[in-house]
Design a protein that fits this description.
about 15% strand, binds flavin mononucleotide, 8 helices, 4-stranded antiparallel β-sheet
Length: about 325
């Protein structure tokens, strides 16, 4: 079985308690889906028992339906994927009526992600979620701000904090999902925490572009896109490590290139309380549960009984 003895302890029978705490929420397992990579509803249910995951995090939704970008919107490349889906979605009213009940019937813990192009858009989404049967709301701040101060919300601590403060009207625990495309992630994390986010989700995609060798032009219709998958994993680990160093009591949800038990453990050792699996799901729809099972086995093989004890251990001497 490859079990090892550690500190004189017989660990062949170690049973790992997989529960973790993210802010005020206890999750039954530390692995979730990542927003945008598992649909809006029960799309993964034929492959994965959704009730075994820490949570199903659904693709970012706005108050109203949104068509997204023209095709092609996805392209695979070595070690990763480029996407410019453009936040296509049915709108929260439709989702609350159709998708959320189906997810809850399957026993899934649901985290709903919201997006907007103005603070008012985010507030409209938050208001639509008042009283919704969701565990938490993940606020996707990696969206362009079409109001006065242009740029990406998550690149500016002040406007990010403004959004988080404004969406508190939803009445649910808030996780702020941040962008790695800035050297201000620690400042933004501190600002959103101060504004009421119980946790930060690190990281969204990196800005990237792939050219088509036939045409010599950008391969995606939108031009550039978001880069994800194994290649972004060290960026995510570094971001988690830096934020945990600066803000050791702020819960972190790690995401970016998780594809097996070790890459999930690496994020938790760096400071994450839980992880999400995104791009790996496109190659293997069972990836979130496989990662969970591998992570539990790996942690047990180190003689650890509590998954939660892993968080931040890289800062305290490692395993
Ligand atoms: C096709 C696709 C769509 C995505 N859509 C969203 C989205 O709607 N909201 C969001 O916060 N992140 C979205 N993401 C980003 C992922 O949730 C995740 O942060 C990122 O891909 C890094 O994780 P990964 O390497 O495991 O995919 C999307 C990623 C992909 C690949």
């Amino acid at each position: 079985m490859g079990w090892r003895r550690r500190r004189g302890q017989d660990i062949s029978e170690v049973v790992v308690d997989p529960r973790v705490q993210v802010g005020s929420i206890q999750l039954t397992a530390p692995v979730m889906t990542a927003s945008g990579t598992a649909g809006h509803g029960v799309e993964l249910a034929p492959y994965v028992d959704l009730s075994r995951l820490g949570a199903v995090v659904v693709k970012s939704l706005s108050a109203d339906p949104w068509p997204g970008n023209p095709a092609p919107r996805l392209i695979g490349a070595p070690q990763g994927m480029l996407n410019a889906v453009g936040l296509q979605g049915p709108g929260l009213k439709h989702w609350l009526q159709h998708d959320l009940p189906a997810l809850r019937t399957m026993g899934a813990t649901v985290v709903v992600s919201i997006w907007g192009r103005s603070v008012a858009d985010y507030v409209a989404a938050a208001q639509a979620l008042r009283g919704a049967d969701v565990a938490a709301v993940e606020v996707n701040l990696s969206c362009p701000n079409l109001e006065g101060r242009r740029g990406i919300f998550a690149h500016d601590p002040t406007v990010s904090a403004e959004v988080v403060d404004a969406v508190a009207v939803c009445g649910r625990p808030l996780w702020a999902k941040l962008s790695p495309n800035t050297d201000r992630v620690v400042d933004v994390a501190a600002a959103v925490h101060e504004a009421g986010a119980e946790a930060v989700t690190l990281i969204n995609t990196l800005l990237g572009m792939v050219l088509d060798p036939e045409t010599g032009r950008p391969a995606l219709a939108a031009g550039g896109g978001g880069w994800s998958g194994r290649a972004v994993h060290p960026v995510a680990v570094r971001t988690i490590y830096d934020v945990h160093t600066a803000l050791p009591t702020l819960p972190i949800v790690g995401v970016g290139g998780v594809s097996d038990g070790w890459s999930a453990a690496e994020m938790m050792l760096a400071g994450a309380s839980a992880v999400q699996v995104g791009t790996a799901t496109f190659a293997d729809p069972r990836a979130p549960l496989r990662v969970l099972d591998e992570l539990v086995a790996l942690v047990g093989s180190h003689g650890e009984r509590a998954m939660a004890a892993l968080t931040g251990r890289a800062h305290r001497g490692g395993w």
